[in-house]
Amino acid sequence: MASRPWSPTATAFSRGDLTPLGRWFWTVDKLLVTLVIALVACGVIAVAAASPAAAKRLSGHNFRYEDLFFLKRQIFWVLAGLPVLFGVSMLSIPWAKRLSIVGTVVFLIALMAVPLVGVGANGAQRWLAFGGFQLQPSEFFKPLFVVTTAWLLALRFEDRSLPTMQLSFGLLVVVAALLVQQPDYGQTALIAAVWLVQALLAGMSLGVLVLLAVVGTVGMGLAYLSVSHVTDRIDKFLTGGGDTYQIDKALDCFRAGGLFGVGPGEGQMKFRLPEPHTDYIFSVIGEEFGLIACLVIAGLYIAIVVRVFILMLDEDEPFVFLAASGLATQFGLQATINMMVNLKLLPSKGMTLPFISHGGSSFIALCMGMGLLLAFTRRNPYRNASPYAERWRA
Predict the structure, then answer these.
(1) Contact assessment for residue 288 and residue 265, using Cβ atoms and an 8 Å cutoff
(2) Cα separation, 238 vs 257, whole angstroms
(3) Phi/psi-derived region of residue 263, left when phi > 0, alpha when psi is between -120 and 50, beta in every other case
(4) Between β-strands 119-121 and 133-135, what pairing exists: parallel, antiparallel or unpaired?
(5) Helix axes 137-154, 93-117, angle to 10 degrees
(6) DSSP state of 163
């Protein structure tokens, strides 16, 4: 059937609209966008519930936070982050690739600068300070590294003789060494796990997988034996001995909330909870909105990851497949780790819940990563009806 040519009189968001916004509207996966917006909205509600507890806990003798201080900041970051999310999602695939490769280099340099000029908190040195703003380079580096790794691994499909698997693994080792210095073992494990998933999808042999599993196990054992911070957290998780105040209060929140929660603003256990607006915000949701609300939040994460992999079933471009799969894996794993820590199913990691936890640079970084994911999953449902259907990919 002959396709209908584009008309200069085409209305906005019609199939003939070839403006960047019009092409984005017809190619972006609207279900995925809806799920992400729903998650961001849930995050605002969750921070509203956690804000009074965080304000009370962090108020000192010289400064007192107002009850809704962190909610107001979260709304600011949402208003700043959503344009980043949608702006990045409008990029063509080649430009998304270029942004990621250049960004990987920039934030790798930033990671190298952290031990030299970075600022610390709670025994970790992970941030760079710019005036009154602090930036955590590892948060921005994660999604950019995933896309760069996808680009390197996809080159194997063009020329099997290229040592791209070895190059990507070497880059991973460098990154892991930089993160361990901070120290940030949670981010190290997350990035390594995502790389492993991408490498397996790119055709890594079973023998290499077994070798890496042995090396990883030995590395974890050495960390347990030589790093007191790691030893302490693992011992607390396995034996329940020592100071387990954080996880005990998190579980108290879930017990108090039951199935339906005590009601918005009615929670009391959250005031005893460390980091109620960041690491343990899932426990605040459990207390005020109940187990059913927690299951809804978990369901949103599952739906986003499953939707991405469904979209990738008919993807024939190796780079796009590896990039989207890696970004979805990273997003889902981070959410899973945070929720499992809150439920005492994993040792404490200090990892936020994506789009739910309060955050500044972390929220912007998440928006950038999700924007990349939306860019890689864009499909035109009318690709057979328009000669312009796939122009955005070129």
Answers:
(1) yes
(2) 26
(3) left
(4) unpaired
(5) 130
(6) -
Q: Which residue has the tokens 């009370």?
A: 56
Cα(220)–Cα(315) distance, rounded to whole angstroms? Answer: 36
Classify 130 as helix, strand or coil: strand
Distance between terminal CA atoms of the chain? 24
Q: Which amino acid is at 326?
A: G
d(CA 228, CA 31): 45
Amino acid identity for residue 90 in this structure: M
pLDDT in tens, the chain (394 residues): 444 444 444 555 566 556 778 788 888 999 999 999 999 999 999 999 999 999 988 876 566 788 899 999 999 999 999 999 999 999 999 999 999 999 999 999 999 998 888 777 666 778 788 777 788 899 999 999 999 999 999 998 888 888 888 899 999 999 999 998 888 888 888 999 999 999 999 888 777 778 877 777 777 777 767 766 677 667 666 666 556 788 889 999 999 999 999 999 899 999 998 889 999 999 999 999 999 999 999 999 999 999 999 999 988 899 999 999 999 999 999 999 999 999 988 887 778 899 999 988 889 999 999 999 999 999 755 444 333 344 445 5
Burial 323-339 (b: 16+ CB within 10 A, else e): bbbbbbbbbbbbbbbbb
**67 contacts 57 by C-beta, under 8 angstroms:** no
3-state secondary structure of 119: strand
Q: Letter for the amino acid at 27?
A: T
What is the DSSP code (8-state) at residue 162?
S
pTM for the model: 0.87
Tokens standing for 156? 């194997």
